[in-house]
Amino acid sequence: MPVRALTPPGFALLLTILLPLAAPAQQGEAYQSLTMAFGWGAIAPVEDTPFQGDALDADPGLQLAVGLEVRRTPWLLAYARGDADAAEIRQHLGLTGGLRLLLRSSGRIRPYAGAGAGLLWLEPKVNVAAQVQRQFALRGEGYVGADWAVRPGLRWFGEYRLAGARYTAVGRVEGCTAEQNCATESKSRLLHLGHTAWAGARIKLF
Question: Which of 10, 69, 120, 179 could form a disulfide with 6 if both were Cys (CB 3.0 to 4.6 A apart)?
Fold first, then answer.
């Protein structure tokens, strides 16, 4: 029985199906990549606060991040990253730079680990601006994760980040209701740790 050759439309369809599945393990790494991610986590003081109950800006919430990565060696990348969340009392805006070590330099799934340091800007919301001061603090972070090649030039990733910084904690004045928007701030800076799970994409630039 003769074998029928694929017509041009059929060949194009076959390539469309097979190319994403065959994202080559040996594909060239982008010199620069843009990263975009969503995170879910919380930042909380790990030292005793002078007020009763939990710190007001310690509730879990959604976080957003955008970054740029530059490849240095087959195993090492440098990155710059901005992130933000919207807690109940103040906005956390961070700018961080660091290094990411690929634990496997090729392949469809690549685990990695990294660390960085940067600046954290805490901006109080308008309704508590009289009680809570704007602050800047140094922040360090470490993380582990893995990315997955969807197709050349696009990788999904998931990771866990632990970030630490020292700044004042904020709590609600005793006897004050949530509707009154009254807050109190610790006199000294306390160590805060942030635990966040991130998921996002790395997109090849060039």
Answer: 10
Closest by alpha carbon to 57, among 176, 180, 195, 170? 170
Instruction: From 150, 154, 149, 145, select the one nearest 196 (Cα to Cα).
Output: 145
171/58 Cα distance (integer angstroms) = 10
Amino acid at 205: L
Query: What tokens does 12 get?
Result: 């194009």
Check whether 16 has a pLDDT greater than 60: no
The residue written with tokens 């009289």 in the block is 130
The answer, yes or no, to whether residue 42 has pLDDT greater than 90, is no
Tokens representing 143 are 């993380």
Q: Are 89 and 112 in contact (CB under 8 A)?
A: no
Residue 93 has pLDDT above 80, yes or no: yes
> What are the angstrom distances between the C-alpha of 30 and each of 57, 90, 105, 144?
38, 37, 12, 21
Q: Of residues 35 and 74, which shows the higher confidence score?
A: 35
